[in-house]
Amino acid sequence: MSKCEHCIVREFSSLKALNKDELLKIASCKTSYTIKKGEPIFEEGESVNGIYCIKDGVCKLSKLSANGKDQIVKLVKSGELLGQRSMISDEPANLSAVALEDMEVCFIPRSEVLQFFNNNNQFSMNIMKSICGDLKESDDHMVSMAQKTVKERLAETLLYLEDTFGKNEDGSLHIQLSREELAGMIGTATESCIRLLSEFNKGGVIDLNGKRISITDRNKLKRLSE
After folding, report:
1. What are the beta bridge partners of residue 96?
2. Taking the CA of residue 3 as centre, how many other CA atoms within 13 Å lie in the half-sphere pointing to its CB?
3. Whole-angstrom distance, CA of residue 155 vs CA of residue 178
4. What is d(CA 201, CA 199) in angstroms, rounded to the nearest whole number?
5. Mean pLDDT of 124-136
6. What percentage of the chain carries pLDDT values higher than 70?
């Protein structure tokens, strides 16, 4: 059994406030499993009943709109937690979480987490700060959607993907989103997203190689995002 006190999630998330005894308690009640690329961790409307620790891999948090389009709200990487808000509000998941690559995830039941919440002030403060951070991100995203053009949002998103998730050895973005997923992130039609990528490619800002996207002129892309 992997030790919670040596885990990446503990170093970066709200769990860093837990002491050794509490971490041992988590280790004894958690469930660890692998989620394959394309599989859901949980779906919108599902009862989550605990929190998920992302040990390895990346997933997308998305919401199905009335017209059946998948709107990506956020990407979540290793070291982060999922399901905190649903657990505290005791409501079904508001978003779906789907693996963008193979993932290693641990699940901690709600009953255990709430005990820490009641007994460890720093842990509950960390959870609250984390949820506040999500709210701030959501506000910023909403303003960006309302005030930026689709072109500016695409440039901003490509920079975010490189800054947050890095590059492959060939220089392409490590996280490969489909054209539909990219369009869902910036809130536009897939055709518009494809057209803009082609425009960026012709302008020498990015390089397209099949599904792979490489940023070739970072400064120009930054200017396009502002």
Report:
1. 62
2. 4
3. 16
4. 5
5. 87
6. 99
Please give the Cα distance from 3 to 49 (Å, whole number). 22
Give per-residue pLDDT as tens, 70-87. Answer: 888 889 999 899 998 888
Q: Both tokens of residue 222?
A: 């930054």
pTM for the model stands at 0.85
Q: Is the Cα dihedral 154, 156, 159, 160 positive or negative? A: negative
8 A C-beta contact, residue 186 and residue 153: yes
d(CA 68, CA 205): 32
For 79: left if phi > 0, alpha if psi spans -120 to 50, otherwise beta; the answer is: left
Cβ neighbors of 219 (< 8 A, separation 6 or more) are none
Residues β-bridged to residue 53: 81, 106
Are 63 and 185 in contact by the 8 Å Cβ rule? The answer is no
Could you give the C-alpha distances from 122 to 69, 81, 126, 160, in angstroms and in order? 39, 16, 6, 30
pLDDT band for position 1 (cuts 50, 70, 90): very low
CA distance 112 to 180: 38
